[in-house]
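INFO batch 0412 | record 1 of 1 | parsing
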Amino acid sequence: MRQSPGKQPSPCVRQCCLDGEQCLGCGRLMPEILEWASASDQRQRDIIQAARARKLSRGA
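INFO prediction complete | emitting tokens
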């Protein structure tokens, strides 16, 4: 059973700059960015939480 795409606002802050696989602007990994549009609502929330944690760990 396929879940419908989530409705969370994109965490993109239009400051895209990749450091390897991670965007320094929003903190998402490249696979998360590519997955975003088709991710379930829960998965989008999980991505947002992980991205915030990455940014905090970098001191951003």
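INFO post-check: The mean pLDDT is 91.
INFO record closed
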